[in-house]
Amino acid sequence: MKRFATWITSGIAISGLILFSTGITQSQEIFPAGQGRNTLFLVCVQCHSLSRVTEAKLTAADWEFTLYDMISRGAPVREEDIDTLKKYLADNFAVETK
Ligand code: HEC
């Protein structure tokens, strides 16, 4: 009986792990690896979800504006991270035209 319980527990643990890692894989596709991604994950979730980022239809220039807008609203982006984050957003989430 004890062995059965262990079996069940590890089964649950393993399926949890699989679900968890698929979640990670998916977010890596939506948010490609690159300098700036960590800042995005740390800073840009503090007031709203990252769907704000994925669903925004912004040009590179709009991203620059929006980034400073967020900073003026209180987003704690370090001075030295601004350019990297700006580039990450423009490279991965900018649309050509609206
Ligand atoms: C201090 C809180 C705060 C933080 C931190 C923050 N935001 Fe926002 N963000 C807001 C608010 C409030 C709005 C809604 C503004 C509105 O609807 O007028 C918003 C809206 C947005 C939008 C939608 C704007 C549009 O024009 O479609 C985007 C994109 C966005 N945020 C990106 C970011 C990014 C990228 C970061 C990280 C650098 C970030 N936010 C961090 C407060 C924040």
CATH class of the largest domain: Mainly Alpha
The CATH topology of the largest domain is given as Cytochrome Bc1 Complex, Chain D, domain 2
- Overall mean pLDDT: 86
Oligomer: single chain
Compute the CA-based radius of gyration: 19 Å
User: Count of helical segments?
Assistant: 5
Helix amount: 55-70%
Class derived from helix and strand content: mainly alpha
Spatial separation of the terminal alpha carbons = 62 Å
What would CATH call the homologous superfamily of the largest domain?
A: Cytochrome c-like domain
The portion of residues forming beta strands comes to: under 5%
Number of domains: 2
pLDDT < 50 stretches: none
Question: What's the total count of β strands?
Answer: 0
The topology string of helices and strands comes to HHHHH
Q: How does the overall form come out from the CA principal axes?
A: elongated
Named at the architecture level, the CATH assignment of the largest domain is Orthogonal Bundle
Reported for the largest beta sheet, the result is: none
Bound molecules: heme C
Describe this structure in words.
- The protein has two domains: 1-30; 32-98, Cytochrome c-like domain (Cytochrome Bc1 Complex, Chain D, domain 2).
- It starts with a helix and ends in a 5-residue tail after the last helix.
- The model has no long low-confidence stretch (mean pLDDT 86).
- The radius of gyration is 19 Å and the shape is elongated.
- By secondary structure, the protein is mainly α.
- It has five helices and no strands.
- It binds heme C.
- Residues 43-44, 46-48, 52-53, 56, 66-67, 70, 73-75, 77 line the site of heme C.
- The site of heme C has 15 residues, from helix 3 and helix 4.
